[in-house]
Design brief:
- The protein is of the alpha/beta class and 774 residues long.
- The protein has 27 helices and 25 strands.
- Among the domains are: 80-113, no CATH class; 404-773, TIM Barrel.
- Strand 23, helix 24 and strand 24 form a beta-alpha-beta unit.
Length: 774
């Protein structure tokens, strides 16, 4: 049996890549410095896996920003608007790459970034490729080949990992009508063949193609494209060992298609869909090896080695050991790097740490499973097995996990807990009278820039170098400055800025029972943006109010309305590492009750608008449509539980970003939020079409500028987007806001962009007044 890893975290154990990229963007280090930092991360990852005894170590799983963007650059799927970037003095291929990801605003060039969306049902974001009729492809970037050579130079022969041709096309969008992007396969495949030819010449024996769409619903044309792709590859490279990787779901109705592909090995995710193994083993052709995805690549719990070993033994009896590969369920991109770094028992208790495994530890679990198939066991493997048994047993009975009071309250939830007192049509008039806002009301999504000073204060406070009194005084000063500035530019609905918050999920987790935290548990969300997901290990309860003090303080500073800002139950669930010993729906209900308590406390404190962010609701959709209804039933119910304890005059907002709403718009409406704000600028208001066709009844704030890019849009640009919006949504339903929170931006660009946004709103109001007079 061989072992392999589908991909390893590329940010570095201490976020070395994030820091290097941001220094490069700021002009503080050279391209060579950045490349050196990248090389050190790759070298460390390769050596770690080699030392652990992994047989097939991946290359090209590294990326400066995003692996889908890497593939777009590789095959020259570069939108024409970026071509000029290369002609700017001193720019390189790397600058072109970052321009596609982040936009470009320098000298005479002002170019928007490419669209970004969620990677299947994860919190990772990828750059969406753009496709056009009769598009031509060619080999532009040699990154895949270069990294294979880079590893080989270190004495490590790797297994290059590529986004499969069909999945690459399906991950993109047609930017013109009248064709389907899969029709471009014939033009795309020769570039892949060119890459494979170079890899084979350099001595590559295995190549991994990620085709996650094999776990989704596929059309007949898409199925044919997959068959044609791997038949062509087999014809040109009969000696290359091709491994096709699927993950996040089971093959289900695509199982026969996958098993018939002329490949050497098929990877299946046995964490998300263990049931598929029996059918795979029963129908697998004799020449096909099966890669068993047994170690969870998306969660942080220790593997139950005994259970996994039983699965391996079952497979071994049917296909023999020579046709089995042992692996994580998917790339380890989605988990933190190294549990060994976590030595702070205040944030991560020893008991909880004993239940966990991060990427480095999961690599060892993979090789341990290989060792456990041998008759003679190493002492380290025996110790891992005993440790696994202990962790599995203790989680079933630990008092820190199970809270009977919480369980009983969740069971007692009734329909009345999910209903506002009156329908939106009635609430709307009450709220408009209560709030007194103008047409096209302006607001932001919640957070304002967290400067180096703010982050330094938090670090000093945690170290004990700042007293709580001094820390809160500094944050109050920053909050007041932000309120005054919002008043100055004439925003209509203000926010307090969230300077006290480290992260929109972590902040709440720290104030809820049942959560644990890490110091170095960083995971890439997009580009250089990393998050540190909390760990939900037990039943969840809110011991006391979490946000009321800061919201009421901010409201006391101004006569304008200040929103209370909360993270919704589904997003807290999705953006945490969730306990796997009970259904996710049960855990989500517990969180919803905790947020409900906070919402009612905010209302009692006089907060008139309360925003409950749910950017992850769409992300949580199962990959198969047949499974959607069950998920949406409990997810929408959880939101409504959190939001429905208030009076009609209190306006409930929610925010969602980077989501396709067409297929679930009726469920979005069923959330019954008074106002929903959504990402719309990168998609040029395309996302509003779903709301227009559905005749969405509540109010909508389509984001008018992209906060994930450093470029500052002008008023004219925002007005043009608002004109598109009002063409499909009634003007009295429209709000004006950015795409997302402003935490990651700098104050200079934030102030410039929001000033332009308020000016755009006033333009729209003036036009509306003029129309009313006429």
């Amino acid at each position: 049996m061989q072992t392999h890893i589908l991909g390893y975290p590329r940010i570095g154990s201490h976020r070395e890549l994030k820091k290097a990229c941001e220094q490069y963007w700021a002009g503080k280090i050279s391209k060579n410095d950045l490349l050196k930092a990248a090389h050190e991360v790759k070298k460390h990852n390769w050596q770690l896996q080699k030392d652990a005894g992994i047989d097939l170590i991946p290359s090209n799983d590294f990326s400066f920003y995003d692996h889908v963007l890497d593939m777009a650059l590789t095959v020259n799927a570069i939108p024409k608007r970026y071509h000029e970037v290369l002609f700017e003095k001193g720019n390189t291929e790397l600058d072109l790459y970052f321009a596609m990801a982040r936009g470009y605003q320098k000298d005479t060039l002002d170019i928007t970034a490419m669209e970004m969306t969620k990677w299947f049902d994860t919190n990772y974001h990828y750059i969406v490729p753009e496709f056009y009729p009769n598009q031509e492809f060619k080999l532009f970037s040699t990154k895949i080949v270069d990294e294979f050579k880079e590893a080989k130079h270190l004495g490590i022969s790797t297994k290059p990992v590529l986004v499969g041709p069909v999945s690459f096309l399906l991950l993109g969008k047609e930017k013109a009508s009248g064709f389907h992007r899969v029709a471009l396969l014939e033009k795309l495949l020769p570039v892949y063949l060119d890459i494979l030819g170079q890899l084979e010449e350099l001595g590559a024996t295995w190549v991994q193609f990620d085709e996650p769409f094999l776990a989704l619903d596929l059309s007949a044309a898409e199925k044919m494209a997959l068959n044609n792709t791997y038949s062509t590859i087999k014809k040109h490279f009969p000696k290359l060992k091709i491994l096709v990787a699927t993950y996040f779901e089971g093959l289900k109705d695509n199982l026969k298609l996958a098993l018939k592909l002329p490949i050497c090995a098929l990877h299946i995710d046995l964490v998300h869909n263990p049931e598929q193994l029996t059918e795979v083993l029963e129908h697998a052709p004799e020449e096909l090896s099966i890669s068993l995805g047994l170690v969870d690549g998306r969660n942080i719990w220790k593997n139950d080695l005994e259970s996994s070993l039983a699965i391996i033994k079952k497979a071994e009896k049917i296909v023999g050991p020579d046709r089995i590969l042992i692996a994580p369920s998917c790339s380890l991109l989605h988990v933190p790097c190294d549990l060994d770094l976590e030595n702070d028992v205040k944030s991560l208790a020893a008991e909880v740490k004993g239940w966990l495994a991060f990427a480095k530890q999961k690599v060892r679990e993979v090789t341990a499973l290989q060792d456990l198939t041998n008759e003679t066991l190493q002492a380290t493997t025996i110790a891992l097995l005993e440790d696994s048994k202990t962790a599995t047993a203790s989680r079933k009975t630990a008092k820190t996990i199970h809270n009977s009071k919480v369980k009983e309250r969740a069971k007692a939830i009734a329909t009345s807990h999910t209903q506002r007192k009156n329908a939106f049509e009635i609430r709307k008039d009450i709220q408009r009278k209560n709030l007194g806002l103008p047409a096209y009301p302006t607001t932001t999504i919640g957070s304002f820039p967290q400067t180096k000073e703010v982050r330094a204060w938090r670090a000093q406070f945690k170290k004990g170098d700042l007293s709580i009194t001094e820390y809160e005084r500094l944050l109050q000063t920053e909050t007041e400055k932000t309120i005054r500035w919002q008043e100055e530019i004439d925003l209509d609905v203000l926010v307090h800025g969230e300077f006290e918050r480290n992260d929109m999920v972590e902040y709440f987790g720290e104030r809820l029972n049942g959560f644990a935290f890490t110091k170095f548990g960083w995971v890439q969300s997009y580009g250089s943006r990393c998050v540190k997901p909390p760990i939900i290990y037990g039943d969840i309860e809110r011991p006391e109010a979490m946000t009321v003090a800061w919201s009421t303080y901010a409201q006391s500073l101004t006569h304008k309305v200040v929103k209370g800002m909360l993270t919704g139950p589904v997003t807290i669930l999705q953006w945490s590492f969730v306990r796997n010993d009970q259904p996710r729906a049960v855990t989500c209900k517990q969180i919803a009750l905790a947020i409900r308590d906070e919402v009612t406390d905010l209302e009692k404190a006089g907060i008139k608008i309360i925003q409950i962010d749910e950017p992850a609701l769409r992300e949580g959709l199962p990959l198969r449509k047949a499974d959607w209804e069950h998920y949406l039933e409990w997810a929408i119910s959880a939101f409504r539980i959190s939001a429905s304890g208030v009076n009609d005059a209190t306006q409930i907002h929610t925010h969602m970003c980077y989501s396709e709403f067409n297929d679930i718009i009726q469920h979005i409406a069923a959330m019954d939020a008074d106002v929903i704000t959504i990402e719309c600028s990168r998609s040029q208001m395309e996302l509003l079409d779903a709301f227009a066709k559905f005749n969405y009844p509540n109010e909508i704030g389509p984001g008018v500028y992209d906060i994930h890019s450093p470029r500052v849009p002008n008023k004219k640009e925002m007005v043009a987007l608002l004109e598109k919006a009002k063409a499909v949504i009634p003007e009295d339903q429209l709000w004006i806001n950015p795409d997302c929170g402003l935490k990651t931006r700098h104050w200079e660009e934030t102030k410039a962009a929001l000033t332009e946004m308020v000016s755009a709103a006033k333009n729209m109001r003036a036009a509306l007044s003029k129309k009313a007079v006429i």
